[in-house]
Fold this protein.
Amino acid sequence: MNKILLLITIPLFLVACQTYPQFSTVGNVLILTDTLYSPSTDTNQFVSILLPKDYKTSNRTYPILYLLHGYGGKHNDWIDYSDIELYINNLPLIIVMPAAQNSWYVNHLNNPKKRYQDYLINDIQAFIEKKYPVDTTKRAIAGLSMGGYGAILLALKYPQKYTFAASLSGALNVPQSIEKTASQPSMKWILQSLYNSFGNKPNPHRTQNDPFSLINQLNNKPIPYLYFTIGTEDGFKDFLPKNRELTDSLRAKNIPYEYHERSGKHDWKFWNEEIIKVIAKLKEIYQLN
């Protein structure tokens, strides 16, 4: 994953006036860091974007993949720790990588200025789809760990928004296992973020953001194609059983999905390899060439 970036030279007086967006290129992929104001969080938010280098002159619209980070992550994690830009070289695809702090991709239970689910569903989509040539009929979402949970959650909660969703090592035990997590001293570091997002006891907000509950509410509605992958040596012991359990629930309801287990840990080596397969599936579904 050694990267050589060709930086676009920007005059210093322009940098002083406007820091963003910032650009670099790898092959035929334009790497861009942009910023937007989010009413849902009342903040300016950074977002990393991968675009076909000729997107301004191609006279077409592109399928879009929203790619989510994990706990403790940032908008540029996928660029820094994977070779994502190499895997989409020459593909007509836009990838958007937002930041959502440690929000679990839900609205904060008590703080109306930390509505990160609203940010993802409303603010960033409106910003991206106004500014860039996006085919809104081909909108996908994927993520790793916390972001894997977020991708599946949003696909099930807002199925009209997406046509494909993928979870890489998804934390699909959330929010069901919060009390179990609280009982484990080794997991205290994550507990406050769970309480902020879901509360410190069962409540309707948890149910509304529980993939298992959402599956039971689908009632034969069309939903995105769901893709799951997880390593058999994943260090979070609840993740693998919950991935199996969730896909069992999908199968019981005859909901189309794809599930993969293979040797691997909860790390960037696994995610860097598995995102290749996610992109290959997108290429097949959206007939990208």
Residues 4-18 have pLDDT under 50 and may be disordered.
